[in-house]
Amino acid sequence: xxxxxxxxxxxxxxxxxxxxxxxxxxxxxxxxxxxxxxxxxxxxxxxxxxxxxxxxxxxxxxxxxxxxxxxxxxxxxxxxxxxxxxxxxxxxxxxxxxxxxxxxxxxxxxxxxxxxxxxxxxxxxxxxxxxxxxxxxxxxxxxxxxxxxxxxxxxxxxxxxxxxxxx
Length: 167
Prior knowledge:
CATH architecture of the largest domain: 3-Layer(aba) Sandwich
Oligomer: single chain
Number of domains: 2
Structural class: alpha/beta
Strand content: 5-15%
Low-confidence stretches: none
């Protein structure tokens, strides 16, 4: 276990962390710093630090960080961890889920083949399923993507550049 100040004379804590990780990868590093700057925190974690504790944290926070890091977990001082969570929540709320991501592999295959102009019978033969199963998959794809016609399905596939070619 090594507790380092981020700013030290000679070599800074980030460089020490890098070198320690090269020479002794099993060493657990906890960075202690007065800097709450996101770039320092990210770089410390990239270098191999398991924890980043602000100097204005309580002694209990430092003890908690040391225990978490020695158990193999990452730890950020509460103001940093709260900001990280807020960022994650904002990113999650701002990002709409892409309906394409909820399609199964088989539904994606059917989407591609329908958009390529194959009939239900051709798709059934190619995928070794019944034409009725092809229709069920096509209907699910249309519903999940919010499409009503095969033309819309073809346009969707073209926009997404998901049409497979035999080339």
